Amino acid sequence: MLSFRLWVEHMSISVYLFRSLVPLSAAFLFVSMATGQGVFLPATGAVNRSMGGATAGAAVESIGSMAWNPATISGLGNEVGIGFEGLYSDYQIDSTFAGVGSTTYTMSAENGVSPVPTAAWVYQLRNPNVKLGVGMLGVAGFSSNFPADPTNPLLGSLGRVQGEAVFYQIPMVFSLRLSDRLAIALGPTLAMGRLSLNTNFFARPTNGKYPSGNGTRYHFGGGAQLGLYYTPDRCWSFGACIKTPTWMETFRYQVTPQPGRPPVDKVNFDLPMVVTLGTGFRPNRDLLLTTDLRFTDYNNTEGFGDPAQFEADGKVSGLGWKSVISAHVGARARLSQKCYGSAGYVYCSKLIPDESAFFNLGSDLGYRHGVTFGGTLMCNSCLGLSVAYNYFPEWGSAGPLVLPNNFEVPGTTISQRVSAQSLTLGLNVAY
Question: How does residue 9 score in pLDDT terms, banded at 50, 70 and 90?
Fold first, then answer.
């Protein structure tokens, strides 16, 4: 009888606690971003996707070059590349309350397919050693759509939770061949991004309620990149590229005026610095093997790398992401006079530490493995049609519920399970 009574009291306190934290919990269910190395996609365009993103050390096609090492355009002719990707994620959030007869409540998102467009252009000037390149790359985005679940003690009073964002980068580069073996490329990168959230937990709450993050616009940003491409002989090639952080203007959100707070909320998020080293090996004219090693510096990026914790006024400082090292392996082989086949593999280090798991509910983008394959059909000597399929097996993170005073509630576990896949179509025209 005493055990039953203690259990009832325990569950009553738990239910009261979780229901009182509903406005707070809504904040962490806003996003299911496009799968990538954190906010960045691991590859761009159909050909680059089919090779696991590993083309920084080889001149393969325009979109992959503009995405990861623009110096490799020195090995291309005049070319236009267009790509369109559909990215689908399967996202579930589980909440478990410890105790006798504990139950796990599951909430599944109906995100659908997120579109990711890409395009690139490479142009040879009259000087045979000089090329220009321009890209329009969808580098990140998300679409979340969590339904209401009245049976869930933690999430039951939320109603639906919805959010959407998109980030584009427009790199513009000048490539110069310094010798028969070495080329360099550099130039600015423009950016545009929009982040719309039902509940903006990066803003200060009023009376325990976080404001809406829907009243916003596209914001601008910029950075730069520098790439090197070295081809010592016909078999080997090497590349390196450093992309500075993309510094975004402060994200602004119009909110309903309330006493004691301004009508505009301001949130700071930048995109991280990325450093890539790549190698290409061509044992013969029909086979290309590639590897890339990439460092993405989230730890020192505003917003993503800021501590995952509550501030004194109730808003969240950041997501607490760690910098990521990823390895990419790719292969591309000529199967016939008109057909190429490609395959690749991606591995990433851990993005989100256990202590930051609760603050990343709905934003766990830390996949660990990915497999890719695809092919290209050459319709003629100038036109190529490509397709790629990527699969990222289930990953996730788990941690206790955290209160606004940064106290971890014993006996609670909030976890998420994510898997993703994508299909990419591409067209490349040489002229």
Answer: very low
Q: Confirm if 98 and 79 have CB atoms less than 8 A apart.
A: no
Secondary structure (3-state) at 431: coil
Question: Global pTM?
Answer: 0.87
pLDDT tens figures, 111-165 = 788 888 999 999 999 999 999 999 999 987 666 777 767 776 655 555 566 777 7
Sign of CA dihedral 203, 13, 153, 414: positive
Evaluate whether 293 touches 325 at the Cβ level (below 8 Å).
yes
The one-character DSSP state at 234 is S
| Residue 66 DSSP class | H
Three-state SS for 239-283 is EEEEECCEEECCEEEECCCECCECCEEEECCCECCEEEEEEEEEE
Please state the domain extents for the chain.
Answer: 2-430
User: What single string gives the DSSP state of each residue in 106-151?
Assistant: EEE----EEEEEEEEEEEE-SSTTEEEEEEEEEEEEEEEEEPP-TT
**In contact, 239 and 281? CB cutoff 8 Å:** no
CATH fold group of domain 2-430: Porin (2.40.160)
- Return the DSSP state at 407: P
Tokens (6 digits) for 352: 């989100």
Residues recorded for the chain: 431
86 bridge partner residues: 115, 423
17 residue type, one letter: L
